TrEMBL record:
Keyword Secreted carried by entry: no
Keyword Zinc: no
GO biological process terms held by the UniProt record: regulation of DNA-templated transcription; regulation of growth
Domain BHLH, first and last residues per copy: 5-59
Pfam families, per the entry: bHLH_ILI (PF23174)
SUPFAM superfamilies assigned to the protein according to its UniProt record, in alphabetical order: HLH, helix-loop-helix DNA-binding domain (SSF47459)
Main location: nucleus
Protein name stated in the entry: Transcription factor PRE6-like
Gene Ontology molecular-function annotations: protein dimerization activity
Species of origin: Olea europaea subsp. europaea
Residues annotated as transmembrane: none
Length: 92
């Protein structure tokens, strides 16, 4: 057993049981579209974590892209218009 895992098991209060980890991995599996749409119910925890990281990266990229598009839209509108105010509120 690794020293990190040994320390974790010794701390008691901060210990997460294997059942809790399995439950959390199962919940993540239900949230990630790439995994949720597969027909196989059995996916390894490492694959779930890997797909979760990939999904979070894609969400960050999507947010950045949308922010860039809103910024470009804001530049093309009258700065004092109601539309500009809405776009600015979305960028905050």
């Amino acid at each position: 057993m690794s020293s990190r895992r040994s320390r974790s098991r010794q701390s008691g209060a901060s210990r997460i049981s294997d059942d809790q980890i399995a439950d959390l991995v199962s919940k993540l599996q239900q949230l990630i579209p790439e995994i949720r749409t597969r027909h196989s119910d059995k996916v390894s925890a490492s694959k779930v974590l890997q797909e979760t990281c990939n999904y979070i990266r894609s969400l960050h990229k999507e947010v950045d892209d949308l922010s860039d598009r809103l910024s470009a839209l804001l530049e093309s509108t009258d700065g004092d218009s109601a539309q500009a105010a809405i776009i600015r509120s979305l960028l905050m």
